[in-house]
């Protein structure tokens, strides 16, 4: 997991990595996401990068996936439909109705003159023309496209790149006529890698040792040491905890305490153990459904126990059960699919390829949960138990500890209770009351 996902987070977003890892291999070679596009690659225009933003901002409102607002029965988000309608004639921009309409004036103009959408710029029109001339190829939504190997761009300075990623960086720098910065001094390099991998500064002794280490693999040794540090999981696990909505409280109104730290410990340990990403996924989404699940796998399912609990008086438990289900649906789509699926809760998505019906098909997976605006089933976890530094505790151990605590408290309060006068309670009698708005009492 670390070798692919988490060491690369500096270059790629977490959600992009997730979508990459779950998308699988594809035989369609044209379905790829390049790590970068630079003038040095001289690549054809790409639908997702160059064309989709234009169509999405200016055309999909009336000619997109929403059948209720679709005009002229034209869909521009589906290549076959656009070609069948005559909006696109691949290779022939002058015969493509789309290009004619965006260049027109008056009643033929698209978007219409009275539309909230502005007229396309000359540059956007030129981009559409070039794209149609190149064949008007579409790409799937990036979350569904597999990543294919992309040849690093050719650069003039052959000695500067130390790995293929450097070629992409240098190609962009050379296109802007910018020289790469000189290498940082060793103390700065050490500071950067410490903060990057563990979030902690190196000690003065560590700085001196690194500066005095003349071995060619001095830096690699430091990296290996930091990757083996328990602080690695603490540093990088926090990014995942953000996606998991982690907090040790209920999240609504009183926001009372809800101990979720065992899940935090599980995430830290998973990162430090280099848990494979498929296992990392399965245990969080369905660890309790595995055959004979371990306590660790049950703790992992707390990913979806981070939903809010509303303790305000008069709440409808069913309402907040549904809200928790919505949260779990939307979060799963965002974290593992890289999709803003939540829009389809109310209508077929305008931009991501998710229909209203498909949203609730996904919703159904989470609609059998037993918790109803409450904490649901819990398990006892001792401090540091997840890290293997404490003995596991059982429900019997918890009951025994609670009984011992109660006895201790009773003994502590016994002297005070013996000297305390008996409490006498009486009901107040209201003789008169008044409110500014004549409200009842």
Give a written overview of the molecule:
With 441 residues, the chain is mainly alpha-helical. The chain is 45% helix and 0% strand. Helix 2 packs across helix 16 (317-337), helix 3 (47-58) packs across helix 7 and helix 16 (317-337) crosses helix 17.
Largest sheet: none
Distance separating the two termini: 63 Å
Total strands: 0
Low-pLDDT residue spans: 1-41
User: Quaternary arrangement of the chains shown?
Assistant: single chain
The shape is extended
- Average of the residue pLDDT scores: 85
Spell the H/E element sequence: HHHHHHHHHHHHHHHHHH
Strand residues, percent: under 5%
List keywords for this structure.
about 450 residues, extended, mainly alpha, single chain
List the helices and strands and how they pair.
Layout lengths: L1 H5 L7 H10 L23 H12 L1 H4 L15 H7 L11 H7 L18 H12 L30 H12 L10 H12 L6 H9 L5 H10 L2 H14 L17 H12 L4 H10 L8 H6 L16 H21 L18 H10 L29 H25 L22
Quick rundown:
This protein has 441 residues and is mainly α. It has helices spanning 2-6, 14-23, 47-58, 60-63, 79-85, 97-103, 122-133, 164-175, 186-197, 204-212, 218-227, 230-243, 261-272, 277-286, 295-300, 317-337, 356-365, 395-419.
């Amino acid at each position: 997991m670390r070798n692919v996902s988490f060491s690369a987070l500096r270059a790629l977003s977490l959600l992009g990595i997730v979508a990459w890892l779950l998308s699988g291999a594809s035989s369609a070679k044209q379905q790829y996401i390049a790590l970068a596009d630079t003038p040095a690659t001289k690549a054809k225009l790409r639908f997702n990068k160059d064309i989709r933003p234009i169509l999405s901002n200016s055309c999909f409102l009336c000619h997109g996936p929403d059948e209720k607002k679709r005009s002229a029965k034209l869909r521009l988000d589906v290549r076959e439909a656009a070609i069948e309608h005559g909006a696109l004639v691949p290779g022939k921009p002058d015969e493509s109705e789309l290009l004619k309409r965006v260049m027109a004036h008056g009643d033929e103009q698209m978007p219409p003159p009275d539309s909230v959408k502005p007229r396309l710029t000359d540059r956007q029109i030129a981009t559409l023309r070039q794209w149609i001339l190149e064949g008007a190829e579409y790409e799937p939504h990036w979350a569904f496209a597999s990543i294919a190997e992309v040849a690093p761009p050719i650069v003039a300075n052959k000695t500067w790149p130390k790995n293929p990623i450097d070629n992409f960086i240098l190609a962009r720098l050379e296109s802007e006529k910018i020289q790469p910065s000189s290498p940082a001094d060793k103390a700065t390099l050490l500071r950067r890698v410490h903060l990057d991998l563990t979030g902690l500064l190196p000690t003065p002794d560590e700085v001196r040792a690194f500066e005095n280490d003349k071995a060619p693999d001095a830096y690699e040794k430091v990296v290996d040491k930091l990757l083996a540090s328990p602080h690695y999981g603490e540093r990088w696990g926090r990014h995942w905890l953000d996606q998991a909505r982690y907090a040790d409280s209920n999240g609504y109104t009183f926001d009372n305490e809800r101990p979720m730290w065992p899940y935090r410990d599980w995430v830290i340990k998973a990162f430090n153990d280099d848990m494979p990403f498929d296992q990392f996924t399965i245990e969080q989404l369905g660890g309790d459904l595995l055959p004979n699940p371990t306590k660790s796998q049950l703790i992992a399912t707390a990913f979806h126990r981070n939903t809010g609990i509303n303790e305000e008086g008069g709440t409808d438990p069913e309402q907040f059960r549904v809200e928790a289900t919505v949260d779990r649906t939307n979060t799963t789509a965002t974290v593992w699919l890289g999709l803003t699926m939540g829009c389809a809760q109310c209508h077929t998505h305008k931009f991501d390829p998710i229909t209203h019906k498909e949203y609730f098909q996904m919703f159904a997976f989470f609609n059998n949960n037993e918790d109803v605006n409450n904490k649901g089933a819990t398990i006892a976890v001792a401090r540091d138990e997840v890290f293997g530094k404490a003995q596991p505790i059982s429900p019997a151990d918890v009951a025994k500890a609670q009984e011992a605590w109660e006895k201790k408290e009773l003994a502590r309060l016994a002297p005070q209770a013996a000297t305390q006068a008996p409490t006498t309670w009486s009901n107040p009698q209201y003789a008169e009351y008044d409110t500014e708005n004549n409200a009842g009492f």
